[in-house]
Amino acid sequence: MPLPLQTKLMLDLEPVVEKELDRHLSMAKEWFPHQYVPWGQGRDFDGPLGGEGWTPEDSKLAVEARESLIVNLLTEDNLPGYHRAIAEVFGRDGAWGTWVNRWTAEENRHGIVIRDYLTVTRAVDPIALERARMHHMEEGFEAAHGTEFLHGAAYVSFQELATRVAHRNTGRASGDPICEQMLARVAADENLHMIFYRNLMAAAMEIAPNETARAITEVVKAFQMPGHGIDGFLRKSVIIANAGIYDLRLHHDDVLIPVLRKWGLFDRTDLTGDGDKARDELAEYLEHLDTQARKFEERRDARRARQAARRSG
């Protein structure tokens, strides 16, 4: 009896996982969250220690950077759910399990450093942040693709790059060199994660091109950032997009297209049947997304022009 495709792929790709894990460990740089936090700016809060309660005037960050940092942190907070979801897809044995645990440890470090930075610099209301964390984690996380291996690997290939872009642009938007340095360090980790998953998918494409192309298409068409369940996410994402931290243009040009180009999806000659159909669907969707991105940019530019005219008038 032939093995199910997912089981066969997992077995065939284990040597690739071992190779990519070794590459990752050779390139990943050890770093320590406490070294990126300006502890000297900290002071006691109200409560048992009798310090000063938070006020909006405490924050030196623009609202766009503040909202983006909150989304980024609350996303990291749901790490237990992500660990479970990825472990269900990749398993806990051998090189697969070693990678999942390493990935989880590195992602957890991101949540530690961002929370410490926000708390010490009083950049956000710590009570509201903690309540948002509790609410978000109580909601839990379920991957839209379930335990399908190809869908899961395709999703994180794009998602890790999207996160890298969001972190880097948030740092630049913060106006704080300390914040920018911290998020650049976090983004470097995310880039290595993206390379791992991207290379894994490239190997899967060689083994099962049609099935892999279908999974990629379905993931791209249904893509949502993992923090989409955050309370008020739509409002926050609009603020983030209007600031140019992460928007449709960046998603199309800086996330989807580079990864798809690396896989050579539109140049392959081995796609047949449903795989070829999936590629056509993907091309059509990307064209639609490009049109939507252009319309968003036009509306944003017009809105900014009106705001500038009011200020000068």
Automatic annotation (TrEMBL):
InterPro entries: Fatty_acid_desaturase-2, Ferritin-like_SF, RNR-like. Its cofactor is Fe(2+). CDD domains: Acyl_ACP_Desat. It comes from the Bacteria. The keyword Lipid metabolism applies. Keywords: Fatty acid biosynthesis, Fatty acid metabolism, Iron, Lipid biosynthesis, Lipid metabolism, Metal-binding, Oxidoreductase. Homodimer. Belongs to the fatty acid desaturase type 2 family. This is Acyl-ACP desaturase. It comes from Actinomadura vinacea.
